[in-house]
Amino acid sequence: MDENRITGAARELGGKVQGAVGDVTRDRETQAKGAANEAKGNVENLYGQAKDAVRDVADQASDLAQGAMKQGRDAFPDAERAYRQGADTVTTYAKESPLMMAAMAGALGYLLAMVVHGRR
After folding, report:
1. d(CA 50, CA 71)
2. Calculated CA dihedral for residues 37, 38, 39, 44, nearest 10 degrees
3. Could you read off the pLDDT of 22-46 as tens digits, one per residue?
């Protein structure tokens, strides 16, 4: 639970009490301060709830991603090894021929631009 929820709920309760005291004493200033504190507490509580909700969604997304990774590893056990081997090969080639890699990257970018934007 987010601390904003706790402090917001406390401020909201304090505002209600302050407003009730203002009602009993018929002091409009105390009533107004109580209503303002109650509103501030409500907003702070809602902010804390929103932070908790975002945190929960992020945790769920992380869990889903980890589950998908596990399923992928189970379904294709050699995929990670093949990926690492390919990455190592490309890295080695890039170190040996950096100009050729730059030319290949430029050509790939040009082809991708043609596919996306079409020929003119």
Report:
1. 31
2. 90
3. 999 998 999 999 999 999 999 999 9
DSSP code for 77: T
- Residue 17: which of 45, 37, 3 has the closest Cα? 37
Residues 6+ apart with CB under 8 A from 34: 15, 16, 17, 18, 19, 20, 21, 22
Instruction: List the structure tokens of 86.
Output: 């390919």
Quick one: angle between helices 28-75 and 79-96, nearest 10?
Answer: 90
Q: How far apart are CA 2 and CA 104, in angstroms?
A: 51
Token pair belonging to 119: 């020929």
Q: What is the pTM of this model?
A: 0.53
